[in-house]
Design goal:
The complex is a heterodimer. By secondary structure, chain A is an alpha+beta fold. Chain A is 26% helix and 28% strand. Helix content of chain B is 70%, strand content 1%. The longest helix of chain B has 28 residues. The chains are: A alpha+beta, B mainly alpha. At the A-B interface, helix 2, helix 4, strand 4 and helix 5 of A face strand 1, helix 2, helix 5 and helix 12 of B.
């Protein structure tokens, strides 16, 4: 239902943004500039005219956003998401193209911008509000609400530098959350703070969306995107590769890219990534019980082993290695680590190359695409490879082999599809304990 | 179905016109300028034992030192005014100018988070220190008043020009601040050049010496310095010891306006890339 004079609230037309590459060129001292011109007048002229090597952060981006729509923008780091938001919020300007915005814009690219540590909470509320484009009167009206939402009433007249970082973030978000623009641009605000605070943020985001305001939301949190957004854009290397109202489909596309038709069932360290002395991952792959590499899709009626290969230069007893299993939609299914069992069962290591194998039992996962992400850490000290931070990952595509039953041949709903044990006990017939024991033993094997 | 009443339309393009200032937006955001200046004021003397009295102490001590050296030892002429009063009336405006310019010149780089994280009219950032400095100027004025009572000097009717002179100085600080702060975003050299520049400028302006001592040959050169006319007029309207040099003031006003307007244009032309460079 669109009325005749209702134009889209945001129109982005052929948007380009180029950054010059070469740090020495972008950022130099005045004397260098002068000296260069003096020394090589001809070259300087040529340099000025010749196109410098540049990097296109955005490459012909076109889209429209209707009033009241909540649009999610997803993509890998460097895909151009943040650049897009920076252009829309006029922090930086396009190299080419045009953006038309038909409404007051408020942007939350980072909470607490302009917070000054020497100023009190009260002073910062006003100052931060003004920076975000609020009028003093507006802030006056919402002052009590902001303070209440942040929960820092007692410290209102204390300089912000005495606040804990959590308090600072809460206060900053409270100010930002009470902004009432027609178009709200949000970038990863939800990535900060503890779980409870994130929940609060999500609630506020949902409320903003339900009030019919237009929101453009950039996040790596796929479940947040799926929950909040009615429309979604997938950016890749500065261009839109997917867009539309089918958010979950696009999210799936993003999480499990169908590269050459095969999901990568292995990961190889290309050179010097994850360099560290304790455990440097080299390779991760899926194999069968005999050590043969498996490629996707894999039927569910065989045991799958995850093989992790790495090298240890510096043996540290606190090193822990494991993986995180994600289901479609990036929901964490479980964590598993090599030191999950009692200490006597931990594998022992020596310096040099190590190979770890861990079993993912057959008929445990459901049909579908899962993601396995490596993690490793020095226990209670630091992450070596932190999950969620572009750590090594591979995909596991389970297809077929769900059960041997004629009643269960198609995929059922559910994140996992374990084959559970069932017994029928007839009245008056005693189940043999031996038989039961035998089955139990069989399961244990 | 509610029809939205805002016919507001914002167009973002790579380029805009030379003088496309967007007054509407500056008006829309004018409270931010007030808050920026207020913040500048509030943080200036935070965690200092002496607090705002520094606004007085800085020109006062400078005046005492200059009076001892130039007034006492060097016997500097001072247009028939006791040297302490002569130098303080100059230092009052000069120290305002010096402090505000230093803060303004570094303001964009210091506030790089504001540049790279939110949108706001960037013009306001280098403007704020000049505004905030006016408060210090007013505080330091109290000492001048006390000295005038002590030395029995009375301002004449031309004192009504004082706001104009101070306003012109504000425009000068702002204009130079626009230039220096925008250049500083790209070339951090400004940070190192600025202290020298300010120091040289002080000796090239009649702050602690009368214009007459430079001789007629160089007077015209000094009058190209917009501070010359402003400082002389500032002293004349306050102390009433000499007639106001209107041609000199007009010259300063013209140069000041030129710097101010060209500064705005330069900042507007370069601000698009601040976030990419800072």
């Amino acid at each position: 239902m669109t009325s005749r004079d209702e134009k889209p609230i945001i129109e982005v037309k052929h948007l380009f943004k180029e950054y010059k590459i070469g740090a020495d060129k972008a950022y130099k001292t005045l004397s260098e500039s002068i000296a260069n011109v003096a020394r090589h007048p001809a070259r300087t002229l040529r340099d000025l005219r010749a196109p410098k090597s540049s990097f296109r952060a955005l490459n012909d981006v076109n889209f429209e956003v209707e009033r009241g729509e909540v649009l999610g923008v997803i993509g890998r780091n460097g895909a151009g998401k943040s650049t897009l938001l920076k252009l829309l919020s006029r922090i930086t300007y396009p190299t080419n193209g045009e953006v038309i915005m038909r409404g007051r814009v408020g942007s939350l690219l980072e909470v607490g911008t302009g917070f000054h540590p020497e100023l009190t909470g009260r002073e910062n509320i006003y100052f931060n509000g003004a920076i975000l484009g609020m009028k003093k009167r507006e802030i006056d009206d919402k002052f009590n609400e902001i303070v209440k939402f942040s929960g820092v009433e007692k410290f209102l007249d204390t300089p912000v530098k005495r606040y804990s970082s959590g308090m600072q973030v809460r206060l900053a978000f409270s100010v930002a959350a009470h902004l009432e623009p027609e178009i709200l641009l949000v970038d990863e605000v939800l990535a900060v703070g503890d779980a409870e605070f994130q929940k609060k943020c999500m609630g506020k985001m949902g409320q903003v969306a339900s009030e019919g305001r237009t929101v453009l939301f950039v996040s790596h949190n796929m479940s947040a995107i799926e929950r909040l957004c009615k429309c979604c854009i997938l950016l890749e290397k500065g261009t839109i590769v997917q867009e539309g109202p089918d958010v979950s489909q696009i999210v799936k596309e993003y999480l499990f890219p169908q590269g050459e038709g095969i999901l990568s069932s292995y990961w190889v360290n290309e050179g010097s990534e994850f360099q560290n002395p304790w455990f440097k991952p080299n390779k991760m792959l899926i194999i069968d019980s005999f050590g043969n590499p498996l490629s996707n899709p894999i039927p569910n009626n065989q045991d799958i082993w995850l093989q992790i290969e790495g090298s240890i230069d510096n043996l540290d007893p606190a090193v822990d290695i494991g993986y995180v299993m994600y289901s479609e939609g990036d929901t964490t299914l479980y964590w598993s680590g090599l030191k999950d069992h009692r200490e006597s069962q931990w594998p022992t290591f020596s310096q040099g190359d190590v190979i770890l194998r861990t079993k993912i039992p057959k008929r445990f996962l459901n049909e579908g695409v899962y993601k396995i992400e490596l993690y490793s850490s020095l226990y209670q000290r630091m992450w070596i490879v932190e999950p969620g931070k572009y750590s090594p990952s591979l995909n596991l595509h389970i297809q077929g082999g769900l059960s041997d039953s004629p009643y269960w041949v198609e995929k059922r709903d559910g994140v996992i599809a374990p084959l559970m044990e069932w017994k029928g006990i007839m009245k008056g017939q005693r189940s043999g304990s031996g038989q039961y024991g035998h089955d139990h033993a069989g399961l244990k094997r | 179905m509610t029809k939205h009443n805002s016919d507001f339309e914002l167009i973002i393009r790579p380029k805009y016109g030379l003088l496309d200032l967007n007054w509407k937006e500056l008006k829309e955001y004018h409270e931010l300028l007030y808050f920026l200046a207020l913040r500048e004021l509030k943080i200036r003397y935070k965690q200092t034992a002496m607090g705002a009295s520094w606004a007085v102490l800085q020109p006062l001590f400078t005046m005492i030192i200059f009076s001892l050296i130039f007034g006492g030892l060097a016997q500097m002429p001072s247009e028939g005014v006791p040297y302490p009063l002569f130098s303080y009336s100059g230092l009052l405006l000069w120290i305002y100018f010096q402090n505000a310019l230093t803060l303004s010149g570094n303001s964009l780089v210091e506030n790089h988070l504001l540049l790279s994280k939110v949108y706001l009219p960037k013009l306001f950032i280098p403007t704020a220190p000049g505004l905030a400095g006016l408060v210090d100027y007013a505080i330091a004025m109290v000492i001048l008043a006390a000295m005038m009572v002590y030395y029995q000097f009375m301002p004449t009717a031309t004192i009504i020009l004082l706001p104009v002179i101070v306003f012109l100085t504000l425009l000068l600080v702002a204009g130079m601040g626009y230039w220096l702060s925008s250049i500083c975003v790209k070339y951090r050299d400004v940070k190192f050049v600025l202290p020298f520049f300010v120091q040289i400028l002080m000796f090239a302006s009649p702050v602690i010496y009368p214009l007459s001592i430079v001789g007629e040959n160089l007077e015209w050169l000094l009058s190209l310095n917009p501070l010359t006319g402003l400082l002389n007029a500032h002293r004349a309207v306050l102390l009433g010891h000499a007639p106001v040099d209107y041609p000199g003031l007009a010259m300063s006003a013209a140069i000041t306006l030129l710097i101010f307007i060209s500064g705005i244009v330069y900042l507007r032309q370069t601000e698009k890339y601040f976030a990419d460079l800072v």
